[in-house]
Amino acid sequence: MRVKVTITCKKCGERFILRARKDQGKLETGFKQCICDNSSMFEIEEIPV
Ligand SMILES: [Zn+2]
Predict the structure, then answer these.
(1) I want to staple 14 with a disulfide (CB 3.0 to 4.6 A). Which of 4, 9, 27, 31 is the partner?
(2) Domain range spanning residue 25?
(3) pTM of the prediction?
(4) How far is the CA of 14 from the centre of ligand 1 (A)?
């Protein structure tokens, strides 16, 4: 299943919109970290395509 995700960094507020795959409830975005080096505090919102 393909979805779009909006990832909002809770540290600096930067937003990223990217495509992701969702298989068996597991979301694979390939997203590693924000440009501010934050790699754990994100708000992720799924947008069905
Ligand atoms: Zn950030």
Answers:
(1) 9
(2) 2-48
(3) 0.85
(4) 5
